[in-house]
Amino acid sequence: MPMDFKNKKITLMGLGLLGRGVGDAAFFAEAGADLTVTDLKTKGQLESSLESLKKYSNIRFVLGEHRLEDFQNADLVVKAAGVPMDSPFILEAEKNNVPVKMSTEIFAENTSADVVGITGTRGKSTVSYLIYEILKEHHKDSSQTVFLGGNILGVSTISLLKETREKDIAVLELDSWQLQGFGHSHNKKFPENPEGFSPKVSVFTTFMPDHLNYYNGDMQRYFADKANIYRFQNSDNILVVSEQVMGYINRFGPKPKSKIIIARTEDVPDSWNIHIPGDHNRLNIALATATTKALGVPEATIKKAVENFRAAPGRLQLVRQHGGVDIYNDTNSTTQDATIAALKAFGPDKKTILIFGGADKKLETGGLLSMLPEYTKAIVLLPGTGTDSIKESLVSVSKKVPTTFASTMQEAVSVAWGHAQAGDRVIMSPAFASFGLFKNEYDRGDQFNAAVKKL
To answer: What is the pTM of this model?
Structure first.
């Protein structure tokens, strides 16, 4: 039975500027909730989001702070991704027996649609978009609708509750914070599974070091949140994984109860005309193929959708070909493993001008730095605490590869373009977080695209 939000006192923790929080707030307001929206950002910082919500009279805004009272007397607290479960405000809600949820979790538990969930350190976005495009192609002449949500820019997943019907399919990209919510079900006011929630069809792409600043360096804690993608599945459900992830499942557990399908790059036919480069993308295609085959999609349909697919936004996305130079936006590569994958996608031909750098995530970078002399023609560094942490190590690299420290994205693109000749490629693949110079990774990608258009 779907939740009824009418006249419920709901606290929405985190409005933000990416559009999801606005959509969530609009959904609850339209559902008749008595809604409090609280955010540490000020009214001025949130101006564009607030403008979108000014028509709702049943929203109370608490900005520039959080107040304990808003978490003590609510019927439900809906927290944004990234707010830790040990936040004093979340703990205050739990102390007062107030259920704490995330909007994607509420959607997944209440929708009539079948949910396909995708997670992983790398590859989850590309696999999510691939599965979505394949299923759309398969169902284009049927009454079933395929939706894409979860960790998707600008999409309020809970708003899809109004649109999804029985037999529809919801493809959800799920990060570790959203999955943390899936395993954190202590809802005493709205009946539900007392353990937690996992999609009936789940995909776990890769597992690598990331967000270790959030998890205090504990990879097992990070994996435990990711594992909620399959933890609550049963024997009728499906889990699609890579061999690499299967190794971590065997190491950390829990053991899946569902049917396991292991996807391998060699499962993708060589005859397919693939437009997304690299072995990592071949694995992404294999994962999407295995998942959609398990859902009854014929191989011919999968092949057509894969061959029409170019890239997920900000994931080694070819944004312009100019003067014989290919220019790629890979802003979502926020770890060295992701940037290494981008370099390996083209090989050590020394035709890559790499723009990278940013905010520190306390991750290892030695593997990436050791590759730069062999794989790059020139490198341009964006400012940030992560860049500062590798400056000493870059001294030896700069003796072999022209190295420039830029202060803005516009400058970085201009310098990179100055090194490029016909047949080369410019890749912005940061290997670090975006905070500091940019609002977020999407702002970083937008600024890159804007600078590239000016060339």
So the answer is: 0.89
